[in-house]
Amino acid sequence: MGAIPGEDVFALGGLLRTLQQVHDALWQKLVPGRQTSPQFAVLHRLSLRPGIDQRTLGEALSLDKATVAELVGRMELMDIVGRERTAGDGRRNALHLTSAGKAAFLSAAPWVAQVQLRLAEPLSEDERQHFLRLMRTVTGIEADAAPATGRAPGLVGLPADPAHIPGHLIRVAQQLHTRYWTETVGTRPTSPQYGVLYRLTREPGIDQTTLADRVSLAKAPTGEIVRRLIDRGEVRREGDPDDGRRKLLTLTDAGLRAVHDAMPAVLHVQRRLTARLTADERDELTVLLRRMSTV
Q1: Quick check: helix, strand or coil at residue 33?
Q2: pLDDT at 152 > cutoff 50
Q3: E strand or H helix that includes residue 244
């Protein structure tokens, strides 16, 4: 079946997923209340550009039409976003923050700034700027040249333009990776499933706790992935002869075939994700992502 490429070939997609998890963990730890990162992104944009419509909002935040519609609808029910018909175009709804939305934004903004600072903490200032440039290249996001029309007090350390916010760029890049994976590989295996299968080609016989650490997944999701792969006959779980309480994981022949069968499509996803980068830039971004994922 041929040799299996080294880890660096697959690294970028996995690192983006890991860094998204780091961002989410920092968010849950530092940002008070139940406001999610996408909800805050809406509040942030509308604080600076009140009166934009839903389509423009979705484009600014790199959210698809269905996602932004569901998000805005939920925030309307929470009474933090409002909408009204615009003069001269009865089909267009202008979005704005309600009084409660403005208060929620101002309350959360300093904590969200801390999340971004902590996320980029392993990097020097020059490295952080280089990281942002590389991520904008990957995502195709350009820095916003248009001036903001609203006022956003309280943005201590939080740039007005999402193109300068690490968490935003990571989310968009992760969305791109997920979309490319679905279009090219499909849903069998999923990206996390392939990560597990690939890891077991490199480290056969590791236990589930070690596997979860290697693929940067929590224990519960890893356990569910392993269970599915065992049910499909692609992974085998056996007792450790030296420790009866420990179970070791190895690939079956079917699992090894699954790795090889999906590999051309997986490699295409990685090439597509990094198509705008030079080889040196891809390597530089991989190094920076690895350092940030240790926060």
Answers
A1: coil
A2: no
A3: strand 243-251
Interatomic CA distance for residues 149 and 39, integer angstroms: 20
Which pLDDT value is given to residue 87?
66
- Tell me the pTM: 0.86
Which helix (H) or strand (E) element contains residue 248? strand 243-251
Residue-by-residue DSSP string for 273-295 = HTTTS-HHHHHHHHHHHHHHTT-
CA geometry: angle 90, 91, 94, nearest 5 deg = 85
Mean pLDDT throughout 265-275? 93
Q: Residue 178 to residues 13, 183, 251, 273, 294: CA-CA distances in angstroms? A: 9, 9, 25, 10, 22
20-68: pLDDT as tens digits = 999 999 999 999 988 899 999 999 999 989 999 999 999 988 888 999 9
d(CA 161, CA 148): 9
Per-residue DSSP letters for 114-131? HHHHHHTTTS-HHHHHHH
Asked if 26 and 118 count as a contact pair (C-beta separation under 8 A), the reply is: yes
**Rounded to an integer, what is the distance from CA 144 to the centroid of its chain?**
21
Helix 11-30 vs helix 253-273: angle between axes, to the nearest 10 degrees? Answer: 80
